[in-house]
């Protein structure tokens, strides 16, 4: 991957993000923010790469592991919290029946 | 392309598609929960893709596995426990904390790669490392400060409201720029300077911002953490990271914009304007209340009993008192008596847009009864009773009438148009913006002083005595 190609990826990814959430009902702002926040924990992949490529370099292994911990804290916590919030909305229709 | 490359490529492609569908689905009520699971699935898929690639090529050393497992277990465990335990009222703080940790993760990766290069270091590599550290650090300390402020652990120090703060922050910014160029010149030691001043900058920028603007800040920091992730993607050469980070960064910006609109604040004034209350002390709008009417719970119950249409305006005070379930009891009684009950939800009710909807949904309030501001505003003149529960700034008529008020121009709920307004409040303290509320002085407004939960409980008792809701 050349740098230029990665820049294209960055540009298109940003445009996708801008387009994806055009209209959001206010109800969903908090869950959406929380869900997007969980996705930003994708840096766990960078942390994993770091650990795998450390080749026995213990300080790097430790840094990678701590980083992985932080990222997964973000990811796992973020998705669970979002699910908790959304569970309250989806319960509604079944109550009405 | 070798086979492991092809496999990873296909999995990455699938993961990006699912992540995009996930974010898309999260913006619709019906699909939101499934979309969240889809996004979670896509994230685990991306991990499988990455690990399978390394297993197929260089292999993964036992030692690496050990550290992967240690990090994963500890991080996931803490995340899951916190997510299960935290009360719904502290959602904004929790999101801020998670967000800060995401930023920290990007920072650590960049730091690790900078000190122990895993590939040939190039200029591009060093720039992306610097960006990742800079944005990651700001995200981390900024989020922690935001969390501490929302939790009430941290107040706004006086000096941060003076012009000094701009000077201090500019010094930090310049220092980080110097560290950045020094780093690119090959002086690896200056990375620590970059880390430290970026941390300080995150604190310096967030600390002066008032509590009322915190949701906007958290949303913006959420966007930053996406940018930090994208920068980390450049560091480790991962397209998936760049796409996902860019998507979150862009989506976060849009959301920030939406929130700013709801509060009638521009992003610039949120970031550099300081706290609202600090501005208002100088303006004419602050002053003493002259015409406060306070009334008992009993009077309130009598008026409610005679009403045909009631609108509830919930605010953060309701959430703090954990009174949403008690409120639901009250409205159930009124409904059983044939009284029409509607909840008016201001776009920024609670501490975050949509926060109030989540809290009321928790108390089983039917979705159809939650009305957005634009829908409900024309209804107020035909409304008999408005119950304001722990909301303040969002019902302040100053926003419409007083052009000197800092709130002027903010969209508000026109509760004063209703025949009677009851404001349930603990005392006469100002709202989150710190501004006097003209509503309280109006002749058709009565204050019911007390903790929201206690007042509502008393109200249930009074309504029972009146025979409301018993058939």
Query: What series of H and E elements makes up the topology of chain A?
Result: HHHH
Number of helices of chain B: 18
Kindly state the percentage of residues in helix of chain A.
Answer: over 70%
Question: Low-confidence spans of chain A: pLDDT under 50, at least 5 residues?
Answer: 92-97
Could you describe the largest sheet of chain A, including whether it forms a barrel?
Answer: none
Q: Indicate the low-confidence ranges of chain B by residue numbers.
A: 278-285
Mean pLDDT of chain A: 84
Distance between the termini of chain B: 75 Å
Task: Name the overall outline of chain B.
Answer: elongated
| Averaged pLDDT of chain B | 84
Q: How many distinct helices of chain A?
A: 4
The biggest beta sheet of chain B reads: 6 strands, parallel
Give the C-alpha Rg of chain A: 18 Å
Principal-axis shape of chain A: flat
Give the number of DSSP strands of chain A: 0
* Strand arrangement in the largest pleated sheet of chain B: 3-2-1-4-5-6
Cα-atom radius of gyration of chain B: 26 Å
Biggest chain pair interface: A-B, 87 and 113 residues
Concise description?
By secondary structure, chain A is an all-alpha fold. Chain A contains 4 helices and no strands. The termini of chain A are far apart.
Describe it.
The complex is a heterodimer of chains A (97) and B (471). Chain A is mainly α and 97 residues long. Chain A is 79% helix and 0% strand. Chain A has helices at residues 3-20, 29-39, 44-52, 58-96. The longest helix of chain A has 39 residues, at 58-96. A 6-stranded parallel sheet of chain B has the order 3-2-1-4-5-6. Chain B has 471 residues and is an alpha/beta fold. Chain B has helices spanning 3-25, 32-56, 62-85, 91-115, 123-151, 164-184, 190-206, 214-236, 239-263, 267-272, 276-280, 297-305, 316-320, 324-336, 355-362, 373-376, 398-401, 452-465; strands at 309-314, 340-345, 370-372, 385-389, 420-425, 445-449. Helix content of chain B is 59%, strand content 7%. Chain B is built from 18 helices and 6 strands. In chain B, strand 2 (340-345), helix 15 and strand 3 (370-372) form a beta-alpha-beta unit. In chain B, helix 1 packs antiparallel against helix 2, helix 4 runs antiparallel to helix 5 and helix 5 (123-151) runs antiparallel to helix 8.
